[in-house]
Amino acid sequence: SNFILDEQYASDYQARLTSLHLEQINQNEGAAVAAREVQMARQNYQAAVSSAEKNKSLSQAYDELHDARAIGRVARDAARSDWLRASAESAALREAWQKSQLNLAQIKKGSVEKIASLEQQLSLIDEARKRVSTQPILSPVSGQVLDCTARPNAVVEAGAPIYRIFDIDRAYVM
Questions:
Q1: Do 49 and 90 form a contact (C-beta atoms < 8 A)?
Q2: Per-residue pLDDT at 88
Q3: Which residues of the chain fall below pLDDT 70?
Q4: How far apart (Å, rounded) are the C-alpha atoms in residues 102 and 96?
Q5: Is 72 helix (H, G, I), strand (E, B) or coil?
Q6: Which residue(s) pair with 165 in the sheet?
Q7: What integer pLDDT is reported at residue 153 of this predicted model?
Q8: 121 and 15 in contact (C-beta within 8 Å)?
Q9: DSSP conformation class of 60
Q10: I need a surface site. Which of 113, 125, 129, 140 has the fewest CB within 10 A?
Q11: For 141, phi and psi rounded to 5 degrees?
């Protein structure tokens, strides 16, 4: 087995795995925060809609009172103004709610894509490690291994000697 490359692949695999776990944590936290923002925006919007509906009813009642000459134009206009202001606030809060929903969807999509990319990288590293670990290191001669100079995590240049081999076929006794 190519233990030098095996160690290198294991180290790279571990680094990518750590990145994957951190991204999953970030995705969960980011999505949770965004989901809370969506919920708060929805609640604010619903409260504004309720307020706008209440102000609309009041404005309509003030219109009837004004038509019956029970109240003046100033009171009716103030009620109508309150209704229009509440309606505008409701529309703005609806837009904020929609934006928060879009933000949540983007956070989820971005994280899913990044996690998929990291998982694909892990798969490729594991596949490469398996291919390398099953490839034998071949010697140009046959014989007995006397010494191995390569160590785990060592970087070895192509063609550099990593074993000393005793070639029995070339040996002779004097």
A1: yes
A2: 96
A3: 1-8, 132-137, 152-156, 158
A4: 10
A5: coil
A6: 145
A7: 56
A8: no
A9: H
A10: 140
A11: -130, 160
Tokens standing for 140? 């140009």
Helix (H, G, I), strand (E, B) or coil at 162: coil
DSSP string, 1-60: --HHHHHHHHHHHHHHHHHHHHHHHHHHHHHHHHHHHHHHHHHHHHHHHHHHHHHHHHHH
Distance, in Å, from the CA atom of 73 to the CA atom of 65, rounded to the nearest integer, reads 10
**Predicted local distance difference test score (pLDDT) of residue 12:** 77
Burial of residue 151, with CB atoms counted within 10 A of its CB: 0-12 exposed, 13-18 middle, 19 or more buried: exposed
The tokens describing 3, both together, are 């233990």
Check residue 1 and give its pLDDT.
Answer: 43
Q: Which residue has the tokens 């007995």?
A: 144
DSSP string, 101-160: HHHHHHHHHHHHHHHHHHHHHHHHHHHHHHHHHTSPPPPSS-SEEEEE---TT----TT-
What angle do helix axes 3-67 and 73-133 make, rounded to 10 degrees? 170
Q: How far apart, in Å, are the Cα atoms of 173 and each of 42, 110, 144, 168, 169?
A: 93, 72, 17, 11, 12
Separation of alpha carbons 112 and 23, rounded Å: 9
Structure tokens at 39: 């919920």
Per-residue burial over 52-76, b = 16 or more CB atoms within 10 Å of its CB, e = otherwise: beebbebbeebeeebeeeebeeeeb
